[in-house]
Amino acid sequence: MPAAAPAAPRGAAPAPPAAAAGAAAAAAPPAAAGNAPSVAARAALFGTAVEQLEEVPARVVGSIPDWLKGSLIVNGGGDYTQMAHMFDGYALLSKARFEGGAAWGSQRFIDTEAYRSYRQQDILAIATGGGSFTDNASVSLHAVGPAGEGGRRPRLLAVSETPKASYLVNPDTLETLSKATFPDKVKGDLTTAHPTPLSDGRLLNFTRSLPFGGFHIFKQDPETLARAEVAFLPDRRPLTPAWLHDFPANDDYAVIIEHPLYMSLPSLLFGTPKPFVFMDWLPEDGTRITVVRLDGSEPNRVFTAPPFFVFHYSQCFEETTADGTRQLVVDMAAYDDPAILNDLMLQPLKQPSGQVSRSYYKRMAIPLTGPKGGGGELPAPSLLVSDSNDFCEFPSINPSYRGRPYRYAYVMSAVRPTNMGNALSKIDVATGETLTWYMQGGAVGEPLFVARPGASDEDDGVVLAPGGGPDGRSFVVVLDAKTWAELARAELPFATPNRFHGIFSPGA
Ligand SMILES: [Fe+2]
């Protein structure tokens, strides 16, 4: 079993959940029955979306701040016909635009080759759907193109985990503009959907060449999309490379965290069943952590740690401790093992029973001083929460605090029993205190912070998240980032299926 066992849930002092009224509740909601998304909510999440090309007014319940001007655009699956896993749905963009206290909604499929083949009833395309080697760009969105007023860029890059699953889309109309091309010679068959934006505007990411390859870490020009390789790190198991969904990074360092979750190439190519989708878990290997200085001025520092599994990292910043030790602080939503991958199979997701795997907001401190090359053992990541919240996903922060010390994280959480995330929490990493917003029988997605114009406090703004009510109605919820009270909900007159990652596009 993994050694990185989180503390068992503590306390759980019964307190009424914030429920649909949307008041803030201080952590530890009760373990009431039937907290999982309702039948209607799940039907909306994993059904087939109907496109809404023209913006239509949303019904606003509550009061949206007048200053909120821009669009929450979120990528995710839009059609799960004959699919097996939450990650497989064909890419659909959904949008909620806010201005003057009102809101409008629209949604549109991305015009990928995979989706076009499916629409033409190409059986092979259906069978290979959203697999790793298709161009189904369903995971995330990144602003690219020349920076205009307020730093707004005119295009969005929709991506998934293969370089060919990269499409340029128009943030105003959601139209697919073109397949993205990269004018460079960077090798690789896989990538991540989680590039780190650097302060000079470039994007930091890596591709994977395999087998007998490794991590090609690159910086990408946001206008030309040209990638320049800055470092290469060989895989620790050349025939069975570790699978990484994300990696912590900042302007100076990239950290490659190889959990002992290894891709099976026969499974990827031929669909051979494996314990974790297309992967094997070998906890005896522990986790290999490599710190790469991006300008090459320091040798890589390599550490081992107990096994753990992470989809998403929220932070990576450098600090000097009281005794003068330089270290990188890495924060994440961490699981003991990759069982969450099986939780996200559609068959269990569509059932109201079962429990989503436990995960916690955690921190690792990685020394930047000491023996060159590292070589040390690191302890398992440690808890950053002091309450009983035992599900954490989609961790996010105020983006202007990226790469530097911060205080507040915003995460998807869970009020159990449930087999999916159904709540949103604000975590104070200084105190471990957690505030939770929750809607019984509903579902929610990734929280994104938007600062109030002129704000100076880190949490002065709102957090937006897509969600679905127990009646199957889709909405975007607007939470006060300071108090965690629900300010408003923009209810959309159409169903939006399961969402992954989004972006707030300011302005019109
Ligand atoms: Fe992700």
What is the count of helical runs? 6
Outline: globular
**Beginning-to-end CA distance, first to last residue:** 51 Å
Assign the structural class, choosing from mainly alpha, mainly beta, alpha/beta, alpha+beta, or little secondary structure.
mainly beta
List unreliable stretches of 5+ residues: 1-33, 125-132
Rounded Rg: 21 Å
- Hetero ligands: fe (ii) ion
Roughly what percent helix?
Answer: under 10%
Number of extended strands: 34
Summarize the main sheet: 6 strands, antiparallel
Supply the number of structural domains.
1
What is the residue-averaged pLDDT?
A: 90
Estimate what percentage of residues fall within beta strands. 35-45%
Describe the structure.
The protein has one domain (8-506). Helix content is 7%, strand content 39%. Strands 2, 29, 30, 31, 32 and 33 form a six-stranded antiparallel β-sheet that branches. It has a five-stranded antiparallel β-sheet with strand order 1-5-4-3-34, with no helix packed on it. With 508 residues, it is mainly beta. The site of fe (ii) ion has 8 residues, from strand 20 and strand 34.
Brief overview:
The chain has 508 residues and is mainly beta. It has one domain.
Features:
508 residues, 6 helices, iron, metal ion binding, binds fe (ii) ion, five-stranded antiparallel sheet, carotenoid dioxygenase activity, oxidoreductase, Carotenoid cleavage dioxygenase
